Amino acid sequence: MRVFVTGASGWIGSHAVDEFLATGHEVLGLARSDASAAALEAKGVEVLRGDLDDLDVLRRGAESTDGTVHLANKHDFVHPEVSNAAERAAVQTIGEVLVGSGRPLLIAGGLAGFGLGRPVAETDVNPAVGPDSARGGAERLVLDLAGHGVRSLVARFAPTVHGTGDHGFVAALVAAARARGASGHVGDGAHRWAAVHVTDAARAVRLAVEGAPAGSVLHVVAEEGVPTRDVAAAIGRGLDVPVDSVDPVRAAAELGWIGFFFGQDVSATNDRTRALLGWEPTGPTLAEDLAGRSYFA
């Protein structure tokens, strides 16, 4: 299979590319910079230059391949409307190309914002609808394509996709703790975050593209929920700084943008995903990764 991957040089995307290549697939990777293009070419990836605002480029990538994995996102937490608009436009553009083709379109989704008071299940409907909602309502948009001849797939990733080289949420928490001189959890830290090692996440993406049926919602989650106070404690040990409780009202001021997310319960089940894909996570746990030095070097 020849797969078009947006975000091909990103954290999850680069590992997904490695997984596809290692299992005999070809990859066309979107790259917006010379450095990203060079890194992809060194792996044997065919490069398509452009970014999420280049809708004609996205269209060409989807047209010329056997399936699309859309992992890129602007991640503008200061101006989320920018990210939301770009995400919706990208998914609409790729989806229009694939209508009636039977080819797969997998997009990245998240687990925050459901507000259920329990772990999110694969059967739970994402409340984000419309262009002004989180991620531009892209999850509902792409699932609707299942009835129009697209093998549409949503991969809801754990908030902590961890591993050596991670520059995402856990790295942001480490940076905040280093700046404060203390590792903080929000409130009592009893709320939980799902977690998955990046190599397990990449394997789930590949398995989904290879065979998951249209309309599948997948939870790329290895650990259902790690208490955030345990995450804060592990970061405190790694940096040799104290651990404290941050008032929820002060979370954003104390921890930065990551404080808004760290104060939420983002736990999720994964039984249906494991059964559907035959996927069994084998990578290190979040605690094992935080016991090493890669996050603190």
UniProtKB/TrEMBL annotation:
Entry-linked Gene3D superfamilies: NAD(P)-binding Rossmann-like Domain
InterPro entries: Epimerase_deHydtase, NAD(P)-bd_dom_sf, NAD(P)-dependent_oxidoreduct
One Pfam family hit: Epimerase
Domain NAD-dependent epimerase/dehydratase residue range list: 3-211
Taxonomy, superkingdom: Bacteria
Protein name: NAD-dependent epimerase/dehydratase family protein
Organism of derivation: Kineococcus endophyticus
